[in-house]
Amino acid sequence: MADKPILFSAPMVRALLDGTKTQTRRVIKNAPGDGWHMDRVGPTGFQWTCEGGMPRMSYRPPVAVGDRLYVRERFRPHGLGTPISECRDLDDIMFHADADEAEGAVLDWKPSIHMPRWASRLTLTITDVRVQKLHAISEGDAVAEGMGWAAFKAGEAKGNCPISSFRILWNAINGPGAWDANPWVCAYTFTVQRGNIDQLGAAA
C-alpha cells in the first residue's frame, strides 16, 4: 500500500464532497494506438497485445488497489498575503471548491499542484483498477464519475445522459477533441473519506 497525491478541479472536489463521485479516469501517456487490446495479468499488472498476438507490452498502473490518495485542490491561506509556511492546520486554509462567487474571484488562489500533504482534506482508498479505452465507459461508470452532478450544476450538460455529460466535461478539462481521441485510460474506483490522510492514519 502506498500514499500518493491526486489532483482534482473544484467541480470534481464538490462531487467528492457530495458523495456522488467514486471513480476517476486518467490518461495513460505513451500508450499504443489502434490495433491493440488489453488483458489483465496477475493481480496488479496488465498487458497490451497487438492484433495477431505479437508484440506484447506489459503495463503496471501507477496506482494499485489498496493505495491511498490525498486530494490536492486549489487553495489559499485564510489571510490575504499570509504565506503558506505560517499556516499550521486545516483551519488556516480556504478551498476554492467551497468559495462563493466573490471569494472565487480572488486572484491569489494557489494551484492544486502546490497543496502540501498536511492541507489535504479528502482521502481516497483505491478499490479497483481497470485499463481501458475512454469510450468503454458505461452509463453506470459515468454516474460514478459524478455525472450528472458537476456538469449539470455547472449548466454545461443539462438534459444529457451521463455519458454525454462526461464527454462534455472531459473535453472541457482536456481540450477540444480530447474525447474523440479515445485514449487509453486508467479507471480508478475508490471510497472517499473526509479527513487528512495522516490524521486518518493516526486515528486508525
Draw up the topology in text.
Blueprint: E1 3-7, H1 10-18, E2 23-27, E3 36-41, E4 45-50, E5 56-59, E6 68-72, E7 75-77, E8 93-95, H2 101-104, E9 122-133, H3 139-144, H4 150-153, H5 162-174, E10 184-194, H6 197-203
Parallel strand pairs: 1-6
Antiparallel strand pairs: 2-10, 3-4, 4-5, 6-9, 7-8, 9-10
Word description of this protein:
There is one protein chain. This protein is of the alpha+beta class and 204 residues long. The protein has one domain (3-73, 120-193): Roll (Archaeosine Trna-guanine Transglycosylase, Chain: A, domain 4), CATH 2.30.130. Helices cover 21% and strands 29% of the residues. The chain has six helices and ten strands, in the order βαβββββββαβαααβα. It has helices at residues 10-18, 101-104, 139-144, 150-153, 162-174, 197-203, and strands spanning 3-7, 23-27, 36-41, 45-50, 56-59, 68-72, 75-77, 93-95, 122-133, 184-194. A five-stranded mixed beta sheet has the order 1-6-9-10-2. It has a three-stranded antiparallel beta sheet with strand order 3-4-5, with no helix packed on it. The two termini are 15 Å apart. The mean pLDDT is 89.
Q: Could you give a short description of this structure?
A:
The chain is of the alpha+beta class.
Q: What attributes does this structure have?
A:
three-stranded antiparallel sheet, 6 helices, 204 residues, alpha+beta
Percent of sequence in beta strands:
25-35%
Report the span from N to C terminus: 15 Å
Task: Determine the CATH topology.
Answer: Archaeosine Trna-guanine Transglycosylase, Chain: A, domain 4
The name of the CATH superfamily reads Hypothetical protein
Q: How many helices?
A: 6
SSE arrangement, N to C: EHEEEEEEEHEHHHEH
Helix content: 10-25%
Architecture in CATH? Roll
The coarse overall form would be: globular
**Whole-number total of structural domains:** 1
Structural class label:
alpha+beta
Q: Assembly type of the shown chains?
A: single chain
